Amino acid sequence: MGFRPLVHLLATARKLVGSVRNESGGLVIDVQGKAEVLDDFVKALKSCPPPLAVISHIRSSRAEVTAMTGFSIVDQRGAEESSRVLVKDPFALAGRTFVSPDIATCAECLAELFNSADRRYLYPFINCTHCGPRLTIIADLPYNRSNTTMRGFRMCDLCRREYEDPSNRRFHAQPIACPGCGPEVKLTHTGSTAESLGGKAITDSATLIASGGILAVKGLGGYHIACDATNADAIRLLRKRKNREARPLALMIAGRDAVSELCDASIEELELLHSRERPIVLLRRKTILDKDLRSALDEVAPGNGRLGVMLPYTPLHHILMQATRKPLVMTSGNLSDEPIAFRDDDASSRLAPIVDAILSHNRPISTRCDDSVMVLAGSRPAFLRRSRGFAPRPITTALSFPFDVLAVGGQLKNTFCLARGSSAFVSHHIGDLSNAAARESLLHGIRHYAALTGVEPRVVVHDLHPDYASTRVAAEMGIERRVAVQHHHAHVASCMAEHGIVERVIGVVFDGAGLGGDGAIWGGEFLLVDRAGYQRVGHLGYVPLPGGDGSVRRPIRMALSHLWNAIGDAPGQLSSGLTDRLSPGELLVLRQMHDKKINSPPTSSVGRLFDAVASLAGLRDIAQFEGQAAMELEAIADIGSRRSYPVKVRDVDSLLVPDPGPIIRAVVDDVRTGVAAGEISAAFHNCLARMILDVTEVLRQRTGINRIVLSGGVFQNVLLVSRSVATLERVGFEVFTQQVVPCNDGGLSLGQAYVVALAEGGV
Ligand code: ZN
Ligand code: ZN
Ligand code: FE
Questions:
Q1: Does residue 142 have a cis bond before it (omega within 30 degrees)?
Q2: 600 CA from centroid of ligand 3 (Å)
């Protein structure tokens, strides 16, 4: 991170003698001089760390005075010995050299990249100590070149001189490279043996994209699939080949000005977009007048009011964007739900059927890492996916872990978390564990992070659900003590961990699905959470979930289930025509499941209530991915409308149960009288905010708790979260939402780990 050159600079400026070296346990400085000069040296070190560095802890001790001259930077000597010692030390982690996330090309490197007089002019692997690949190229610690995927490249004399010069920006920049000695790009056409190298590979790629072709591009943590984002035919072709009908595709756009042509982005959103982590940011799409461009963008994100946009973050992206001069679709290189391809042989076999050519290079990727995805809800940034640019940066917790903990996360959007002391290392995005390759990468990831962080878990935490692949992985870890944590308890704890909350809170979890303590499928929960655990004090009224998990892609089933629950068995009243939209066969099966309660566990899921309302409102009966109907319902909401639906909360033995029935009946009435879907959507969102308010006000009266935590995947909905926060703050509640990890299941692992800290950790 450029720490040693800084130490060298500060020491020599003060005429101090000694040495500095990197060890896996941290940076070690031996320095001799007068006491007051040494104090000043330490003060200077603390006050101005290099851009990517974070000083978590400085420990100093007196040493024997020995004969020394000058100040030197020592290479990795004694690293193994020290790290062995440090692992036994309970505070070792505080002094460990953390592996940095991957960081976007810095301004200085960028200036050199486009300076025709520079020796790295248009060189796609330019980097320095302030930028470039880290997590994705590191195979082992300590962080030196031989432990990265750059080990196969011998530095040329010019690079070595920079690498060894403490005053140079590339001093000990492990991935240092130049056209003379470093990796190079290669374009291979899938249908033929034709290939091109270097600058020609880039111009040929640009030509391919301009002609409507589809290109695979090797990035930092895996391959992307790219095409011209202004060409509707190219995007349709990509969707067809990728077998991914409806999910929104991400865009890469050259700069902020070009972004503003397509999106209404606030200053905060542009800053987020431009941050060194370079996440994909969901931005509101502008009304586009140009017909061709509009139809292309409709293909990029069908039925969605937002576009997922990122700026180029590797030198290769910058060069490619400059050559194509167009916004590009940059979607992950995979087939539907598979993990993103990151190994070259795998990419060429898996991506060949999708793309016309592959723009690759010979610097291997060691760890797969997807792009991070963020959205700004009002002024609050939120993650939909926390991965590249952020992982494996540790999250500091208010309570410290009593022993090393591993939490294995959920089934979908999986991440895991390793924790020690007051540091929680939440992994990059692993993905959907129903996929064998994702399960494999979960196991590999846990081992890799354990080696990088030195965490040796004594406890493994998993979800209550016995059939989650992560639960099975937990059982196979060979760790004696296993702890099962209820899904929504973990969601609340995740938000508490972020905000350093230790005391009792009211947790509101609106979610897709999670196994509850009573065997039902929960997802509309009001929990009191504290150090003793959780208490369920309210939930959305149960309805049958016909077909269990299978109903996730059948919003119309949820619509019927809610309808039958709300208005009973009077077929004449089902005049919204719902039953006509199902085949007689499916209707019969559904009816039987409902009546005989076969394969229909009760559910309190708000995610499924969204599905039901979306289907009733005529938006979508069948979803291609979970949450699609809810996303579309949010997108069409008439945000100016203040209509709402009735909220009725029953109080059953101190359990507060909001009834979905009156809401469903009101929606059906609206549909029958021809109220616009945008109005229905707005009323539905408003009534959910109202529901949260009504329940939490009673809870506040009963318990005196004024702090509310909102979590669960449904709160990815920006409209719902803004309405809820505003409604609750108006009556004086203190409201916390997730900003450090996602409120969806990507944040579960942090919460699972934090439950252990809450139960057994110290302040
Ligand atoms: Zn740089
Ligand atoms: Zn070189
Ligand atoms: Fe969840």
A1: yes
A2: 19
